[in-house]
Specification:
Chains A, B: This is PTS-dependent dihydroxyacetone kinase, dihydroxyacetone-binding subunit DhaK. Two copies of one chain form a homodimer. Chain A is an alpha/beta fold. Chain A folds into two domains: 8-193 and 202-328, Dihydroxyacetone kinase, domain 1 (Rossmann fold, 3-Layer(aba) Sandwich), CATH 3.40.50; 358-571, Serine Threonine Protein Phosphatase 5, Tetratricopeptide repeat (Alpha Horseshoe), CATH 1.25.40. Helix content of chain A is 47%, strand content 14%. Chain A contains 17 helices and 17 strands. In chain A, the strands form three sheets. In chain A, strands 8, 9, 10, 11, 12, 13 and 14 form a seven-stranded mixed sheet that branches. In chain A, strands 1-2-5-4-6-7 form a six-stranded mixed sheet, sandwiched between helices. In chain A, α3 links the parallel β6 and β7 (126-131). The longest helix of chain A is centred in the middle third of the chain and has 33 residues, at 358-390. Chain A is elongated, with a radius of gyration of 32 Å. At the A-B interface, α1, β3, β5, α2 and α3 of A face α1, β3, β5, α2 and α3 of B.
Chain lengths: 575, 575
Amino acid sequence: MTRLFNDPDDFGAEMTAGFAAASARWVRAHPGGVVRSTADAEPTVSLVVGGGSGHYPAFAGLVGPGLAHGAAMGNIFASPSTQQVHSVAAEADQGRGVLLSYGNYAGDVLNFDAAQERLRADGVDCRTVVVTDDVSSATADRRADRRGIAGDLTVFKVAGAACAAGYDLDGVERVARLTNDRTRSLGVAFDGCTLPGADEPLFRVPENRMAVGLGIHGEPGIDETDVPTAAALAELLVSTLLAEIPDGAGTRVVPILNGLGSVKYEELFVVYGTVHRLLAETGLEIVDPEVGEFCTSFDMAGASLTLLWPDDELERLWTAPCDTPAFRRGRVDGQRTRSAATGTAPATAAAVIGDATPRSRACGARIAAALADVAGELDAHAEEFGRLDRVAGDGDHGIGMQRGGRAARDAAADAAGRGAGAGTVLRRAADAWGDRAGGTSGAIWAAALDALGGALGDDTAPDTRAVADAVRAAEQAVTKAGGATVGDKTMVDAIVPFVRTLDERTVAGDTLADAWDTAARAATDAAEGTRELRAGLGRARSHGDRSIGTPDPGAVSFALVVRTVGQRLREEPTC
Amino acid sequence: MTRLFNDPDDFGAEMTAGFAAASARWVRAHPGGVVRSTADAEPTVSLVVGGGSGHYPAFAGLVGPGLAHGAAMGNIFASPSTQQVHSVAAEADQGRGVLLSYGNYAGDVLNFDAAQERLRADGVDCRTVVVTDDVSSATADRRADRRGIAGDLTVFKVAGAACAAGYDLDGVERVARLTNDRTRSLGVAFDGCTLPGADEPLFRVPENRMAVGLGIHGEPGIDETDVPTAAALAELLVSTLLAEIPDGAGTRVVPILNGLGSVKYEELFVVYGTVHRLLAETGLEIVDPEVGEFCTSFDMAGASLTLLWPDDELERLWTAPCDTPAFRRGRVDGQRTRSAATGTAPATAAAVIGDATPRSRACGARIAAALADVAGELDAHAEEFGRLDRVAGDGDHGIGMQRGGRAARDAAADAAGRGAGAGTVLRRAADAWGDRAGGTSGAIWAAALDALGGALGDDTAPDTRAVADAVRAAEQAVTKAGGATVGDKTMVDAIVPFVRTLDERTVAGDTLADAWDTAARAATDAAEGTRELRAGLGRARSHGDRSIGTPDPGAVSFALVVRTVGQRLREEPTC
């Protein structure tokens, strides 16, 4: 929903004023909208675009060198008035004529047509190219009735580049019209937007459903489905557009994947990956794709795919430089294409497994088996750890431990299978854990396992004392890496009592399995104890009851890991 | 919420692959993230940035000429691993050293520091500048503990420009550190985001509340308030940042107003208008502001303001050209600043009021009074018309009629007050209505009032027949402008019976007041009749019961206008 406004009645005017203040490098306010604040060296044909507000960067964000000369800015989702269009176009005119271009909506057609009449009455040569790219809004035999959506961008960009290249008005009109003929779009929506000051959304899409072909103001769509996967959406968009390849289209295509407001960049990139592959698989060559927000509807949840099939001339104009508040194609001088792998990165060292004694190898195999148990338990508890972590963190502790545990399991199995000793198995597991898990816990577990492996080595089967010493080395690595101490409400709160207890019980003569069990219980108790310490933190941070007195997820997951290892030690007490 | 993904586990990898495919002009994928696909003519110091994914354009969107050389891309909201950072940095290195820069989060610090150690072990000169711009995350005396948010952009941009300018590693590190020292940010949030595949949001902000200083992963804020107006938010952001002006700051400042995902451009521009004014009022000169999305958290609802106080060197570097997927400062050759009003627009004609007969002037005053009544009724019914229009339109009919009616009232009062005749009062009202209302209804009402005014003229007090003839002229103007006919479910369905009835009753000898009354009833009935016609349309369009059988808002508002005029005619039957 739209939250930030003053008097909703003033929204359009305040938005225009703020936009002009933020964008003085490119535009200045003029009654009815904005015009460029810069001029070309020689007069050119002027491109004037426009429409209702609420679709930024369309339309005012596209005013600047190499693109439009002015934008008429209507109220929210309402076409600009005849007077607004006339005012902006008359100011933008440089004496070589004006091309008006905008999306095909009744109000816009009315007002732009009337403005065109007034401009002609003023003696200005004026033409119009209406954008009609939305394939869902009318059948192919009624293309002129279709709405204009994100395909605006291709028409405006090509026309603006033609103006900059010195084309006369006939020429600018010709390439703009050809670009519209060669452009097709299809959009989908998952939810509507709430306009400034409105009590309810302009329209709704039922939860977990997707409206296919819904217009950017909520106009009727052509279908409704469940929300698909990203890949299935890409297939729908590509197959629908490829079912209507324009006359004269070649084998090169410009894709524009547009977000309507709250479908964000990362999601668009996931969808684009499949779009790119599908287009390439049909033999199309992809030219300068664009993925981002080009025609929005406030925070409407939706996306659209536009395809332009350019000829050589349109491609040259599409890729020409431009510089506007929201769309820039720059060029920083002196750049050349860089081939892969030209850095100073050393080639990856081959994963050679060093020598190990037979007993250390046997121990390595057992460690690999224990890490498999650990991975299984981390899988089973990932959801719970995520929940704990959401109280005061970003909720990724579960997935991080899961990724790390699985990677460690696989790396350890690989190393053990190739005859690695205990130390190497642990160090390989450490590296994999850190690399796959990322984050804080990944780095700390990597440090712990690496230190453990370094202390155990590949030469001997470690006895009870050697294990206790190695565990102490791991503890030191953790506190060095993380910088936390007991009472900081981190996993250190569980590690310290674990190591101390293990030390005490092995010195007292317990077997490794017994000592480990006792130590794991101490870790579990300590992890539970972080609950108390975190109560204040939870209250400061969150807004619900669930925040109060949850234990630290890192301490809890540490206790789970050592309990799991203890279970295996009890079942197979010797190497 | 995040809707578009395949297997959530693969989200990070698929996002990276799609991003690289979409952005091959600037980057190529390399294990751990992306590096540039282009090279400078001469080797430079390399800038490597990074962090968790989910913040696009941070961090991968900032790789390209004039900015970063590589980005390490962690999983969603999780720092990249040591291996990832090392892999990207080693590949980006050109033999002149590497600057690592990223926001201050524990996991990032751990992994980037470990990667730095490995790079140094490889013989690469490597330095680190951690970004700490978020004033809400620690007090001023503990600046090094603060988190990094959208201030990343200033540090990265300045450092990247210094690399491109040939600075050595000491120099790049120096300007990056100075930029961080001179950068302050404060963010607010209205709602959290739901990560791909998650069942519930990572965090929530209570409805109609605003969390002040909430971190980009939901870290604790410093306050919670009701959602303020756009202007009050601007005041909060500016006053908080100006309370901590950095040492050595001058009088020039770069503002960056950043949207976190679903607070959109138009809202940001409204806020920015006040930010700009407040900064200027304190005597600060504003340098190249940026308003847009630079550091997001999926579709989190929030915004942040960053201020950089540059010195001459930093300003030169901040404004230097760059070209990356998401941040470009280009320059199209040959542009010069254009002063205001250089177009061919004729100077606005002075609003001279022409001659009129005394009786036409009296009639003009009565028309102005009737238009005041109409404006009052349109105000009272704006909400209802908006509701009707949301069924099959964009919901702006109410506000459009309200704006138009008010503008017509004011213009008519002004013209009548200056002695205009009936025709001029109506034509001035027409022009104002069209200009202020915009949209389809604005254009149609402007055409109708203009035709009415043209037919009545300024010479005579129109008699009953003259009024009926003028109304018929207005009807023709409406059908010409709108192109609709009876049965199209538009206001034409109400106008046509109104005009026909008025004609019949005046021919039959009724007084104007009586004939108008009867005609207005016919219009009201016809407007109600559009309810039936629209049932099918409603069903096709919408998802709820409210869609079925609502009348056309244009027909309903037309009937209201003529009823209102009829009421005045009855009270004052003669001019």
